[in-house]
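Quick review question:
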């Protein structure tokens, strides 16, 4: 059972870290370069499927890291616990920072954007970088825990 959970936690944390990293280095720079109306339209298209699957993968990875920490001992236990905290950080930043911005953008009609529109891209990117660092750290800690357990 530990072997199955180890594979699942590496898969989950790896997917989260990889997706967030790709968004940070490729998608977000493209979105920032777009005019506001095009950004809003594109943002709506990009978020459709992430919104359904990412919370499940993040929560599942956090839970598996926590379970392996509870079941483990020594260095492995500490590393799995630290990984669980990092992945919980991804969830907290996502739900309290990025998701509210996403929801506001989803309610915006591209044609309604005027000169007083408050562009959320820089703030969204900054919080996204925080959660990306948490995800990469969580993945790294999970991998180290699997190797050292």
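Suggested answer, residue by residue:
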């Amino acid at each position: 059972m530990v072997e199955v959970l180890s594979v699942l936690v590496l898969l989950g944390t790896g997917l989260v870290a990889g997706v967030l990293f790709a968004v940070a280095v490729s998608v977000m720079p493209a979105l920032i370069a777009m005019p506001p109306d095009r950004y809003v339209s594109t943002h709506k298209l990009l978020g459709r499927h992430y919104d359904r699957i990412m919370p499940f993968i993040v929560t599942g990875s956090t839970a598996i890291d926590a379970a392996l920490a509870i079941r483990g001992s020594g260095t492995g236990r500490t590393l799995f616990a630290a990984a669980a905290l990092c992945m919980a950080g991804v969830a907290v930043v996502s739900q309290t920072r990025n998701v509210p911005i996403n929801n506001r953008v989803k309610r915006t009609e591209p044609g309604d954007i005027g000169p007083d529109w408050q562009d959320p891209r820089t703030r969204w990117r900054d919080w996204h970088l925080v959660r990306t660092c948490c995800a990469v750290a969580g993945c790294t800690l999970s991998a180290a825990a699997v190797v050292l357990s």
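Why it works: The mean pLDDT is 96. The radius of gyration is 17 Å.
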